Amino acid sequence: MACIKPAIEAVSASEFGHVSFFEIYTALAFTYFADKAPDFPVIEVGLGGRLDATNVVSPVTTVITPVGLEHTAILGETYAEIAAEKAEIIKDGCPLALAPQHPDAREVIKKVAKERNASIVALKSDSADCQPIRCLVKDDDKVPIAQQFDVETDTETYSQLTLPLLGYHQYVNATTAIAAIECLKKSGYAIPKPSVCTGFKNVQWHGRIQTVRSAPLVVLDGAHSPAAMQVLCSTLRECFRYDQATFIVSLMKDKNLIAIGDVLSKTADTVITTQVFDNPRVMPAEAIQDAWSGICSNVTAYPKPEDAIAKALASASPTDLICITGSLYLVGQTLKIFKSSPNLLHRTAKKTKKEKRGFKCVTPLAKGGG
Description:
Layout: H1 5-12, H2 21-36, E1 62-64, H3 72-75, H4 79-86, E2 96-98, H5 103-115, E3 120-121, E4 133-138, E5 144-152, E6 157-163, H6 168-186, H7 193-201, E7 210-213, E8 217-220, H8 226-239, E9 245-249, H9 257-265, E10 270-273, H10 285-292, E11 299-301, H11 305-315, E12 321-325, H12 328-340
Parallel strand pairs: 1-2, 2-3, 8-12, 9-10, 9-12, 10-11
Antiparallel strand pairs: 4-5, 5-6, 7-8
Helix pairs in contact: 4-5, 8-9
């Protein structure tokens, strides 16, 4: 921090004004990467692309993941408008790895890429003949913890890739990552196949369909938009077997409250609203409850996350599912709660005669799942 402090003070005193939290952390990341010299630093855009603090680098490849209708007040209200903002990370002559897109978004992105002579690599997940997910990998409790699939590119075939992330959407993300690798290989970089396989096998991403206990299943996910919530609900239905589903939800004030409630109403048997404290952006638990009272069945509010978790665990049967979602802030706070109260991870749930929860092998996983 000390090494960038003079620059922060200089910018803050200039016509540009106060340096934002994100800009400071971006500068720290650039400084860290410069010091450690990794082979390929991966820089993720914070918001949009055109005006983002990260959009000052000279990349060897760029990647655009699926464009969704999020931050519409800033980026635009349509897929085309948002895609135009994101497409501004495309550089002259720099290859682009492109994930599957809404047709309007794809058209805008391809137009910008053509104008800037940026070749596009997109794999088969962008078409109807995509490779299916082979199966799910289970742990000793028969809870899915990974998935295996095949990916074929113009130059390589990856068989039985193991990815410790669940859901068709993560398969799409994996093919996008491989598309980025193909871009690097076409630019002359040597990326050994065993390194790719090992890299996927060792992926860790907390807060993405993260299972923290079984009987009942407790799953954490940071979904905070209608599209992400739809993906979460689809993945839960397709990858797990359970009886009743309880969702513990906290949202920020800028989220699409009604649309998220509509999605949850199709999967949740019970909803417990809560809120992350010490965050001015958080929506009060009671406000979410009021908005969803006519949308979701059985909605209650417990402002303290620890109370919401205790209530859900006390009410759940061993064959039930508890999903904690709506905010990465809530996921982080939940992990802290479990760390400080490990008994919550082992407390015996309400007994039931039914025992149907377990591993579900999906061959293939329907494309509609993500």
